[in-house]
Amino acid sequence: ENAQDRPIIFSSFQPDAALLIKKLQERYPVYFLTNGGTQIYADVRRNSLEEAKKVALEGGLDGIVSEVKGIFRNPSAAREIKESNLSLLTYGKLK
């Protein structure tokens, strides 16, 4: 009710947080944020677009938000994400 007509999405770099947000509410879309493999983390779900796609599909998330350099490093992932009926958003600088 407080959002009124403003578009809202939830997103998190922590896969478990994104999954929990999705589980707790169905009103707003939830996206998994990823660096797309440009940095490496102990949680392997954060280390590639392929893993991000798995998290999103298995958790019923609405899509993925990737650092743009991760998309350029793996352009076929964008097609695969789209074919999986997930939304794909990007952030970051091209240079």
UniProtKB/TrEMBL annotation:
It catalyses: a sn-glycero-3-phosphodiester + H2O = an alcohol + sn-glycerol 3-phosphate + H(+). GO terms for biological process: glycerol metabolic process; glycerophospholipid catabolic process. Its EC number is 3.1.4.46. Keywords: Glycerol metabolism, Hydrolase. Coiled coil: none annotated. One of its GO terms (molecular function) is glycerophosphodiester phosphodiesterase activity. It comes from the Eukaryota. InterPro entries: GDPD, GP_PDE_dom, PLC-like_Pdiesterase_TIM-brl. The keyword Ligase does not apply. Residues 1-95 form the GP-PDE domain. It is an enzyme of class 3 (hydrolase). This is glycerophosphodiester phosphodiesterase. It comes from Tanacetum cinerariifolium (Dalmatian daisy).
